[in-house]
Here is the input.
Amino acid sequence: MKSHTIHSTLVAVLIVVLPCGAVTGQSSTDHTFTRGKFWTVISESVPNPPIWLASYPGYFEAPSNWFNNLSYWAGEVDGTQHITGGWPGFNIVHHTQVKNYNFAKSLTEAEEYSYETVTSVDPSGSEVPVIPLTVSRKRMVWSLPKYDDFIIHREVFTNESSEQITNWYYSVAYGINISLGIPYGVSFDDEYLWDPGFGNFRMEQGNFVFYDDTSMPPNQAAVTYDISPGDQTGDRGDPGNITIQNSIDRRLYSPQLFTDNIVYVTPNKRGETMVYQGIFHRILNENPGAPDEEFWQPTNQDPTYVFTRMTTQQARMSWRDANTDGGTIDGNLYERVPSFNLGIGPYDIAPGDSVELIRIVALGEMDRNVSELGGLNATQNYLSQGLANLKANWQAALDIVDGFRRTGNWNEGISEFPPPTVGDAPFASNDDELQVDLYVDIELGMQGFELTWTAVPPNYQDPITGTNDFAGYKVYRSESRIEGPWIEAADLPRAEAAELTAGGKVTFRLPAEAGIPYRHWVTSYDLDGNESGFTAYTFHALAAKPAPSNDQSEVLVIPNPFRQVSGLSDPSEEKRISFLNIPGQCTIRIYTVAGDLVRTIEHNDGFGEEAWGSALHGDYLLTRFFQNVQPGVYIYHIESHVLGHEGESSIGKFIIIK
Here is the structure.
């Protein structure tokens, strides 16, 4: 029996929904970045520039929520000022994605990247560019653990016409929402801080950093909580348990921190490398009450209105400092549902000249093994520890940019390379996923998982040292969630792995206790201990099963009685009831004490355990009519279909207490 991968609920960090027009002159193509931890889908369906789908960390699930780059250009051509962007937007000439996994195609390019060419679109529909610039845009991600939390963009704007472009400005704006997928409703809870410790290759140093904090809706009383840690830290980080007494879902749903900035740009006509940074209320078509200068309506194409917002400079201070500063309108409650704008200009671009910018979009968080446990330790420290991680990720991205600017090699700034990854992520539309099957060894009385992954090639060479420093594999497992906590379950040295390798695949058996659902993750590591990225893992949990039994006097229902929850650590498995020591092929029928049939389960996988439903199909404790089962006493009847034991049966009872 294999583990399967499907799409599920998203936890995303960025979202804005905008109306849009169609791509001019070509069909729509979507490309998904799944190589790093920051997953995105770049779509040509809205080319202004393209809409994205986002998820961080991406291994939560596949991206399925929107955020949008609402991009504008402003400039003068032949003495006439033009504003282009929003609608009708831009025309993407072509869009290409390259999967350079493990640097198999190029040692000078990122592991996954896309490139495209973009021009502006004339509102008259003639498809003649309003501002005659052609943009060459490239986006890049890596799987290496030190370099997998960011996306690097490079854009080159070239005047390919015979006309002079003067006083040209560019900006990109989008909405931010750190809090998605949480089990209770919150709003107006995204704060920002200004930190001058984020470096770049411009004159002004520093970034705005966005993170989840307590909810402060306008014209409403502050929300309070009685359950720890909410009674002390409110909904900071969105703890899962603060609205339900005795909930086991204690994780922080929103421990992520986000930052974005242009780190290199061609000096403008004044010799400056200035970047405009503005924070507004969420980009919407109708203002819900925010101050007018804090609101950006995308359908308003008035040149003065758009240009003012393109060139807004946010006070370089945190939301809390701005909120108490009477000298600025910044720091109002509407900025807690923020959109963010980055802009450059003014430029005079002669025919044949170009403007270049390099931009980093980065995320960070505290140790997931800590935020998954929740509690005050997590809510009191996720900001400081997440900020430290975000800064480290930012510096790693700067190292890559610096290496590229010096040599033209996008990997020059990488200080160490682990061995190749041993599989691709679920949802990545590739065929190289980690495979996990069940096994049982009757003679040894053991059961567990049989894992199969792609072996590190025998001719592998470290890109820096030129030697084969591959040392082995590590196997991790989590009985909680895909997010962790992850515990190392096995270390497989290179020599031992060689004996388990055939046809370029490693097959390894990992014993496990029956009835506990686990997820698995496999990495390779080198002689210095550098591990490959988080790409070879199973998305859905799978439980080991014992050997079948034809002695039905040994049948057990676990847990019995069922008291609200199963007792398993994974919240997705909290409704799991299992029948153990059953025949390898049998029919399980569940009845009420009145004799009404509740559910029929056909068991035919040859093992000795079967659950009432699964997290995969979302039918734990559901009746045959897909309704939630009611508390009470239930009767099970098991009928064997095993050769030589056909028709043998047993009857028992169990109790559900809710």
About this structure: The mean pLDDT is 88. The chain is about 10% helix and 35% strand.
